[in-house]
Fold this protein.
Amino acid sequence: MKKVFVSGCFDIIHGGHVEFFKSAKALGDYLVVSFASDEVLLKYKNRVSALPMAHKKYLLENLRMVDKVYSSTNLDDPILDFKDAFIKEKADILVVTIDDKNIEKKKAFCEENNAKLIVLDKPLDFKPISTTEIRERILGK
C-alpha cells in the first residue's frame, strides 16, 4: 500500500483544498492529512483558527478521499509541524503545491525518511480563492 501525506492549515476548507486532496490521493492508495493545530496557527501564523479543531478534524475525516487525519503536534518547527505523524504513518510520498515556500526543506526531510516529495500544480475548473480571501469576504473587506 502506498501512503500519501499532505499537510496545511486547512483553516477554512474550500474547493482548492478538495481538489488538492483528490490529486494527492490519486498518487497512492491511502491519504493522510495533517492540519495545523490551534497552537501552530497561533504561534506561527499569529491568528486564531476559524474553526474549532474538532470540527476541522470531523470535516476532513468525512471527505471520501481522506483515510486518516492528524492535527500537527510539532511546535518546534513551523515548516515540519507534521513530522511526527508523517514518521508514524511511514508515508511514502509527501505532496505539496507549487507555491509551497519550503520545498527544499521538505525535500530534505523526505530524503531523510526514505520518502518522495511530489509537487503539484493547482489546476482548477473554477476561480481559486484563498482562506484569507474567504475571511475578508466574511468580514466585508
